[in-house]
């Protein structure tokens, strides 16, 4: 049974309320409903200060892969912390960074040969956008001043990344006057991912979507520096699962129109969708690849933007040529983060991580099949270890109005029942660490079913 918070937490929460500004939060909410103190992490669970153990059903914002405080990752951190904490990466290098590049390269499409480090998903995207634009300039295409992107996309919260994300939502719309020039096109959700999907007419719809992509590139292709997409799964856009055939079409169109293809696998990378990268399921190799979140197994901030040799070659020259990529961050390639990332990749080599992900995927499908019986649940779907559905008010068949804060209430109630979920709008999803035992996932499904009732 949860106990009241220990007294020192009462004081800390008062200090938090006095001075801390939390992300994605209307802070007034915390006046009545303070942030939840977390004191530990163990396997797929988080330990709350009141003694509750909760399944981390969303991998702490989609980062945690092998479970919290995994001994191999923590051991690597401890070893590296006795060796080298940090050093600037311009003009210097170190073993964890080189080892990480070598380990990762083996798992990526062969055309990606050059790795640029930064420290979060948004900056990995900023780097890709800037690289693409500068590469186009340096190959004599100064007119390519715009980007292409998918509607419902999300690529981070820095201004460049916001500019290529969906604008018609509460997160980003107000920044419109400050953003990059971006043309957007929509891809349909893939009914084959739905557990009760009706794929009638799908071949025709797929063909129409292909034609729409071709028309988009015919209209905008000559002015685009790059096209960015989250392969197969638009995560923050509502866990929209879209067809690999259209990623293939994007590759074809980018090639035909001299546009770089940026795969933002910040969320989909590292086994989340069942394969190491989601791109693999379409047999597509991008020109630029953004990785973060699971890169360190979910322990430390780190990101990478991988580029092809051809793109890299456009930056090559004498110092006075002005062709260098003049971008970097204080913590670029932090050695502690790189060492942990190496340990995380070593787990992929030494343990059946992707086989576990396949088992989790099967359990995810079972869980959402059970949830699907509830009248509030619509469009249950699964891609790899990610399961999602829409929640409606059974009385109206419509999504709950935003002011009801149904998702937030479900999130808070589920916590009290040992489960961390955080619906996005009307999208309820589960995306636990890859190491989550399938039985724990099924329990989570039962908890959700009881709460929905
Ligand atoms: C696909 C995608 N790209 C980029 C980002 C931004 O990553 P970060 O929050 O580390 O800046 C996210 C974050 O959720 C994401 O899902």
What does this structure look like?
This protein is α/β, with parallel strands linked by helices. The chain folds into two domains: 36-69 and 352-452, Aspartate Aminotransferase, domain 1 (Alpha-Beta Complex); 74-350, 3-Layer(aba) Sandwich (Aspartate Aminotransferase, domain 2). Helix content is 36%, strand content 16%. It contains 14 helices and 16 strands. The strands form four sheets. Strands 4-12-11-10-7-5-6 form a seven-stranded mixed β-sheet, sandwiched between helices. Strands 1-2-3-15 form a four-stranded mixed β-sheet. Helix 8 (202-220) packs parallel to helix 9 (244-257). The model has no long low-confidence stretch (mean pLDDT 96). The protein binds pyridoxal-5'-phosphate.
Number of domain units:
2
Q: What does the radius of gyration come to?
A: 22 Å
Mean pLDDT, all residues: 96
Series of H and E elements = HHEEEHHHEHEHEHEEEHEEEHHHEEHEEH
Point out poorly predicted stretches: none
Strand content: 15-25%
Q: Give the ligands present.
A: pyridoxal-5'-phosphate
Helix content range = 25-40%
- CATH architecture title of the largest domain: 3-Layer(aba) Sandwich
Secondary structure tally: strands: 16
- Which fold name is given in CATH as the topology of the largest domain? Aspartate Aminotransferase, domain 2
Structural class: alpha/beta
> Count of helices?
14
